Amino acid sequence: MKRIAVLVIAAGFLVVFAGTATAQTTETDIFGIEIGQVTGYNFGTEEIGVGQLMGLHFGMTDAMELGFVFIQGDAVDMPNFSLVRMTYFLQEEFGFQLSTGSSGANNVAGGLGVFTSPIRREFNDTLTTSLRLSFDYLVPDMATAVSDGIASLTISGKIAF
Description:
The chain is mostly beta strands. It contains one helix and eight strands; from the N terminus they run H-E-E-E-E-E-E-E-E.
């Protein structure tokens, strides 16, 4: 129950500060590809799991991206996820992301997270490369206990047009 309270408080802070923050330019104007490594603590199995991440992102507005994110894990401590992810940039290097989709055998999955892009480079306003660090709380099965989710840390690289 404590974990749910912490997530609700964190989401509340994001909503409060989202109104006061100035939205910045997204990394993706038209299309972007993200590839990375995911490491997470599974509260259900009480073990650490790893997986690979691949994402296809599309620019929607100056402050928002929409993407399809796939996490390939060991299917025990890190399930396989297929997610639709909405990414909102609060600053040029910081924002939050909301995910929904499926995991494993037709389980409804979801997630909430924050990210930072400490290294970002733009070339002639057409090509952007970045290193992204993100922290997400992923829930592999929304029908069961939300407290049995996965606290994951992701490091990824992104190239976008």
